[in-house]
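TA notes. Do not distribute before section.
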Amino acid sequence: MHTLQVKERAVGNARELRRTGFVPGVVYGPSIESTPIVIGRKDLQVLFSQITRSSLINLAITGEESREFDVFLKVVDYDPITDEPLHVDFYHPDVGSPLKLQVPVKTVGECVGIKSGGILNVQFNTIRVHGLAKDVPALITLDVSDLDMGDSIYVRDVDFGEVEPMLPQDRTIVTVIAPRGLLAEDEEVEGEEAELAEGEEGEEGEAEAPEEAAAEE
């Protein structure tokens, strides 16, 4: 679990904090009072490089009373020009109550199907799960190395640990598809084969006609 050191702050000095290299924020949840905090911008940037939105963070607050909360990153407001974080919300869930959270999906490995010209189609970049905060994974990693053209990974193929995916078991997460050019070639070949089959049937029918005519005579 990642730890972030923050300080409790007074309300109303957010602009001055930003000018001096800090980012204002707040931590809240159903079982705690909303608490304004301040974080060093560099500390926050380091944290962002190490976590996902479903990573559980140990938030250590110093102030009149030192406290620690396990939290999730909830909302980040960014400056539209500089892209610097302006404000951060952290959410502290009830320890014993399950919650629903989106977990990012990451694929690793190079598909066999891609080497043959296929395209890896990721249908879900995140998957919503249901479970206790301590059991929520920071990342769902899928090894796609063995996938060939037309192969897929379904929800039922993934180990979600102690949490439950909120998708049907037969839902496709990733699949290897043929490129359009290859599909067009396949369709063209199928069309030619169909025409050839029709031609052969026609020739057989024409060969039988004279025999029928002779029989009538």
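Switch to the second chain here.
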Amino acid sequence: MKKNTVVPQLMSAEESMAWLDSKGFSYKLCDVPIPIMTGRVNCGAPLSIDDEMIEGYYYLPKSAVGLHPQVELCAQGESMIDADIHDGDLLRLELGAWPHDGDIVVAEIDGEYTAKVYFTDEDGRHWLCPMNKRFQPILLTESMNVRVSGVVRTIVKQVVRRSYGECQSIVKRMQEQRRQQDDVMQRLAKAVAEGAHLFWASSSWAVVYGVVRDSGGYEGSVKDFERQAMNLSLSPSFKHVCSVGTVQRTISNHPYMRLHIDKWRDSGASLREIVLMEFLKKFLQ
């Protein structure tokens, strides 16, 4: 593994854009800075911002930025989880935008900030509604000092760097699957050699695939199986070798082959398919 491992090279920004152009991808350059505010959700942002309140910047293409200035705030708490806003998410807030019913807003109520859904009922009363049944909506009354900072336009999910151990377990699982598949293919080569007389055409490999899939624990694709079957070490006298597309075409023409092999007998499989299947099962179970 180490001898065949290569370290990926990082493209420059110019190389990346040239590659996107060569592939015909449509993209927009993110060059408009959006401030990321300090503090966490429940919080909103006052309409005036100074440098001490800015934690960093997030960049967007010009076409994605509206008429109002935008900032990002970090969410906290569980009152909006049914709107897919979870602790640590970033809320992209359009400052000064007036909300419509159903908009998620960040509002200041008596000096405290909160993110909720703005709603006006049939009696003209204004509410801030949580998106979690465990929390109660807030009725806005004249005794409250209420200011809406702006409307949440986008929820930005944080990308969490995965741990070394998690990545290592994924690679190890793949390596173990490969070892198991190699073992299955080795046993299959022996089975084919001993049961060569039971093969009647290259389409017989669809039966082989069904047995490998259901009795051998094979999890690869049909194409991958065809490739490995073509590389098996078989006797030069073996006539019915596997070929590209043969297994897939045979399965497409015989719907019962998509079922578990234990159901083939009652679903239309021929006697010769059943005989080959039962023979191979002894080697692969």
